[in-house]
Structure formats: C-alpha cells, structure tokens
Design brief:
Number of strands of chain B: 19
Strand content of chain A: 25-35%
Oligomer: heterodimer
Number of domains of chain B: 2
CATH architecture of chain A: Alpha-Beta Complex
Number of helices of chain B: 7
Distance between the termini of chain A: 6 Å
Helix content of chain A: 40-55%
Largest sheet of chain A: 3 strands, antiparallel
Radius of gyration of chain A: 13 Å
Strand order of the largest sheet of chain A: 5-1-6
Shape of chain A: globular
CATH architecture of the largest domain in chain B: 3-Layer(aba) Sandwich
CATH topology of the largest domain in chain B: Rossmann fold
CATH class of chain A: Alpha Beta
Structural class of chain B: alpha+beta
C-alpha cells in the first residue's frame, strides 16, 4: 500500500513547522517536525516500508522500532485528517 | 438617547455602512452601558433600500419568545438565553455587532484579547476565560497605562506599508471585572475600580474609565507585543519568556475571529500577527506583579 499527499491541501510554513488547511472541509492542522517530514516525503507516492528506509537513513542512531512506531502514529494522524490518501 | 421607534431598529456605525439591529430596544439600557461611545446612525443609512421598497433584512435580529432571547446574524452562530439574562444577551449582542463590523472590511479581524498602550504601542494579553486578561488590563490602567480593551479588539491587518505592524482599534467596549477583587488588590486598584464602576452585580462589575484613562471609539495604535497569559497559582515571581511562532499561531487560531476570510484567511492573519509582533508567554500568580513585569519589560523596550 502506498500513500501520497492529497492535492487540495494548502501549506503555510511557520518557522520550522507547517500548518495545513484542507481545501474541501477547511479543517486546519499543525504538523510537528516528524509529521511534516513525512508529509514532505509523500509529495511522491511511498509505502510505509519505503518511508522506514528513508527515515532509518536520516536517523541512524534511532532504534528501528522507535522509528516504526512514530511513523505509524504520524501516518494514522495524516490519514485521519484526510491529508494523505492511499494511491495503490 | 433617541431611537427611531417606527423602524424598531437600532443602527450603529460600521466601517463601510451602518449595522442594523432589529428587536433590541428592550436591551438598549444594557447595550449602551457596554458600548457607550459606539456611534448611533439614523436607520436610512443602514442598508441600501431594495428596488421594490421592501425593508432590507437587519444585520442582526434579536427575538424574545418562549421564555428565551434569541440572537441571529449571518456572521455568528445563533445564541439562545433565558429571558432574565439581559446583561448576558447584551454582551452577546456586542459580539454579534463586532462580527458584523469586521465582516464589512477584509482587512479587519476581531480578537479575544485585552489591550493596553505601553510606551509607543499596544500590548495584547491573550488567554482563555479566567486567564486574567481583564484584571491585568485594568491593573495596568490603574497604573496609568492607556486602556484599549479587556476582552475584544478590532485589528487592521493591512495598514499602509506591507511590513507595518497590525493596528489595534478600540471600540470603547466597557471593561468587566469578576468580583470580589483579588485579595491582594492594593488601594490604588480598589480606588480605580470603585471610581469607574457603572454597573455592579455580586459577581461582576462593569467599568467606564474616563477619556484620560481609556481609548475612545476608533482610537488606533500599532501592536508591539502579544502576551499569552498562563496563570499558575503556585508560581513565584512572574516569568516572561519568548514564544515560538507556531505555538502562538495555535493560540491565535483559538482567539482570532474572521469568518468572512475563511479558514485560510484566518490562518494567514494569525501567522502575520505572530511574525510581525513580539510574542511572549507570561507565567504568573499575582496579577499585580504581572502588571509590573509587563510595564517594566515594554517600557524598557520602548527606550532601547
């Protein structure tokens, strides 16, 4: 299963964080740095396994289980907010 | 005060045209204690007359029926109060009036905040109900700082010059205080409250500071600081710390009101505020010590 950003989301960067406004509902979201990194990575479709490899390389000193747990949590939040969608 | 009974409407000044309120005559005594300086207009300038000579709908409609007051407006969710809550209804009506006011101009927003002039600009105090906005703002006023608002303020987000700080505009809404006053209130503050109280209930007082102490309707000043209040009863001395912009944007999203701009417009206004004005958090236990900290900090900044 691969994920990607939904196209109708407006981005507003503020310092190192990102605020998103969903185009259809107008709902607003504040992404912390991890969620923002995942959001950015999903500008192109990627699976959870691909994201694990990407973030494992970016944070080599962080245990893989920790990365997996944080990644799962952030993906769930992005999916619940309709900020990303399953593309295949 | 003379109203135009034939129309049964009160028409108050807006930035572009009058704001008409229907059915509020019974609330007028409360309403004009809260907004004593808001200019009243003749009904003709409220709305353009429709071509068929029918009466244009009022911007705000107040109805008393079935034991309840109901306030409805295109710019605010419908409110419903019991008939004995005259003051609360008038206070909500002021909220509806402010919403209708900012809806006439895309550069205007309203914000749930207190505001006091310190040095050469306005300092806004933000926080949820009970955070101490009214108390600290009126303590500051009792110390000679010019009072602008204790709860609601209009902001012009686009004053001339792109990099210019947003401007706060007073509507001269009367400040309200919870009673009894804090047990550590000093004589200066107690005298200030006693001198300027115009309505008093066991749990609340409405004040009307004079023109020397408080901004008049339409008086405007650039913003120079936003302070998020965090009341901590067991804290020691007040601590003022710089905030990150994203944290302030989250707070502003809860306190800024501009439904005419849409969600993206509200977010842009919040980001603009956080980026153009110094942003702080103030942890405090005593409103009196907090006021001294604010005066000391922003007066120092003004002379730097």
């Amino acid at each position: 299963m691969r994920y990607r950003q939904r196209p109708d989301i407006n981005e507003t960067p503020v310092e190192d964080d990102l605020f998103l406004v969903a185009g259809d509902s107008g709902d607003m979201f504040h992404l912390d740095q991890l969620a923002m990194s995942i959001w950015r990575a999903l500008a192109e479709p990627a699976s959870e396994a691909e994201l694990l490899v990407l973030f494992g390389a970016a944070f080599p000193e962080t245990p893989a289980d920790t990365i997996r747990r944080d990644l799962n949590g952030a993906l769930a939040i992005l999916l619940r907010g309709d900020l990303i969608e399953v593309c295949d | 005060m003379a109203f135009h009974a034939k129309s049964e409407r009160i028409v108050l000044a807006g930035p572009q045209r009058g704001i008409s309120i229907e059915g509020a005559q019974a609330l007028a005594p409360f309403l004009f204690e809260l907004i004593p300086q808001w200019p009243v207009l003749p009904p003709m300038v409220s709305n353009a007359q429709p071509a068929d000579n029918s009466v244009a709908p009022a911007d705000i409609v107040v109805q008393a029926e079935d034991g309840h007051w109901r306030i409805s407006s295109d710019h605010m969710a419908l409110s419903d109060y019991s008939l004995d809550a005259g003051y609360m209804v008038a206070n909500t009506l002021v909220g509806a009036l402010i919403a209708a006011y900012v809806a006439q101009d895309d550069s205007l927003v309203s914000i749930h905040a207190a505001a006091v002039r310190i040095g050469d600009g306005l300092v806004l105090l933000l926080g949820d109900n009970g955070a101490g906005k009214s108390t600290i703002a009126t303590v500051l006023a009792s110390r000679g700082q010019r009072f602008f608002a204790d709860d609601r303020l209009i902001l012009n987000m686009a004053p001339s010059g792109h990099s210019a700080a947003p401007v706060g505009i007073s509507l001269a809404v009367a400040p309200k205080l919870r009673l009894p006053l804090p047990s550590n209130a000093d004589t200066v503050y107690r005298d200030f409250v006693a001198e300027h109280s115009v309505m008093t209930w066991p749990e609340m007082a409405v004040l009307r500071p004079g023109p020397e102490q408080a901004a008049g309707f339409g008086e405007a000043l650039p913003l120079r600081g936003l302070i998020h209040l965090r009341r901590r009863p067991k804290a020691g001395k007040p601590v003022l710390t710089a905030m990150r912009q994203p944290a302030m944007v989250r707070i502003l999203l809860e306190q800024l009101f501009a439904p005419h701009l849409g969600q993206q417009g509200e977010l842009s206004a919040c980001v603009g505020l956080a980026q153009k004005v110094d942003i702080w958090q103030l942890g405090y236990a005593s409103a009196f010590e907090a006021a001294e900290t604010v005066i000391s900090h922003f007066n120092r900044g003004a002379s730097a």
